Amino acid sequence: MMRRRFCATVVAGGLALACASARAQAPGGDEDLPAIRISGAGAELLRMAVPRAEGDGESARTATDTMSKDADVSGLFQVLDPGSFPSQLVSEGLNFSSALWSQVGAQAVVKMKASGGSLEGRLYVVARGDTPTLSKKYNAGDIREAVHEFVNDIIQSFTGTRGVFGSRIAYAQVGKGSHEIAVVDMDGSRNAVVTKMQSDCLLPAFSPGGGEIAFTSYLRDNPDMWIVSAGGGRARRVSKQPGMNTGAAWSPDGSIVLTLSHEGNAELYRISPADGAVRARLTNNPAIDSSPSFSPDGSQIAFVSNRQGSPQIFVMSASGGAAKRITFQGKYNQTPRWNPDPKKPYIAFTGRDERGVFDVFYIDVKSQQVTRITQGKGSNLDPSWSPDGRLLVYASSRGGLFVANPETRHEVQITRGGAASPSWGPAPKH
Amino acid sequence: MERTEVRRGRRGNSVGILVTLALHGAVLGAVALAHGKEQPPLVVQHDFVSAEMVKLGKPRDKFWLPRITQPPPPKPQPNTVKVSEDPNAKAAPKEAPKPEDKDIKKNLKNALDRARKLAALAETADPDEGSLTGSALGTSNQAIGDQYLAAISGLLKQNYNLPAGMAPESISTPPEIRFRFSDDGTISDVKLTKSSGNPLVDDACVDAAKLARRVPPPPSTFKKRGISVACEK
Fold first, then answer.
1. What residues in A contact B224, CB-CB < 8 Å?
2. What is the ipTM of this complex?
3. What pTM did the predictor assign?
């Protein structure tokens, strides 16, 4: 009896203490705390660790280097310096300890095992514990391709949209007294010259399928439009009207719109890519109309015109007709490129600011809000969107091509040497 | 004849030089005397005027293309004086007695009395609960509270960053945190009370409070020492 009473007293006392303790811990009682909401979050790079891949020497080294470069170019990740990893983590292999990795500040860790052209990849999110968020095997034949596929999957797991590593960029490579059209992977590897015409070859534009590149060449002493296979080979002259045949843009249905001046004034025309036959004249204005770019659904064209004085960006229906001016800031705006993502109604362009410097901007077509991407780093020109609409490539007076993420403004140089007018090709097939 | 005039001219010059030397000597003597004499300390009364930094120059003409501007640095929080816990610590040197002014002392006393009376009136005039004489627009205490919560919200937002490229769908359920703060605004006990399902989003919400480290010191009318925060995209 006494024992039971003693137990009851202890239990009651314990409960009372627990209640008192809980009351003391709650700051004024959790349920009646004032509540607020915050929104408009900024964007920051996710801290990613890429320890050296396991596997055979050369493949492991290539896999590690490619992964680090891809993560950097994506503009989504801050790749941590592997020199800061303690030996315990370096020798961890494919195993994973979230407690240890959190100590080096990593939010995500990529583990790889490479052998020949095959790759076993695991993605760990430190906050999710020791179970991989993504674990997959890739057999691409080439270890670099396998890593690109793995990176695309990683980007999808974080953002909901697959990455576009493996896509290529065409550009005019500056040579000695001439320009040639070259193609390079978006991470800056596998640079290849696809024209050997020893003339000025400029303004390349990838076809929608990525198999061909239209460009302008002065080979026959006139700016004619040519088409060459993206893999290189003999180019064919498609449009050879007297005067300008420049600034080709492929519509999603496969036709080409470009600037012709054979009727006296520079106007936009739609032509057949097969034989260059003119199908329609789209503009009719005493001013110069040039540099067309299609909206993602192909229903509209953005272009440059000086019909209201200085060069500005205008938008019109893809079948021609009345044009609406969309840029009103700055005196000299050119090279519009429409974002291929329909959810992002943005047009990137080159603008000259009041200091006479060219930089990359984009305008939200709906809100008319202009956002600056580059500043204070030489002149930056001719932007082109990645096929997922997440990144921009542009040429810079610093030499070479640069890729930037407009959301984070994280910028990476992918090629060195003179480069102009890049055009980003379609997403890779997987 | 000529010799006499020359002599007179020389005599006149000598007199002028002597007078100049005598005057210089007198000035130097006066300066030396003034420095030699011990003077009472100069009492300077500082009138503190609250001032605000204003942005100089004209606003940027909207005709020009925009420039990238760096966000302004966060406002520094007022430092609190920490009392040493060391019992053997030396006492701070006493301040020298300040000259008293009877009028100032009297005015200060009157001002303090007035402030006390106003504070007592404010406490009775602005009850937390509504009253028949209350304003339909709310009490001033509530207004101060709302302003304070808005200030906290702005401060947390400066440190609220989601991983780049994160899809808005990732925050279908906004995470919620709560934290305490002391009288000087120091944040403590940050806890996740509702998860979004995505640990990276949850961490961003928790970090918004942890990185802020402190909120503005609460006004005297704001009695709570904790807050609940929902983090949306």
1. 27-28, 33-34
2. 0.77
3. 0.75
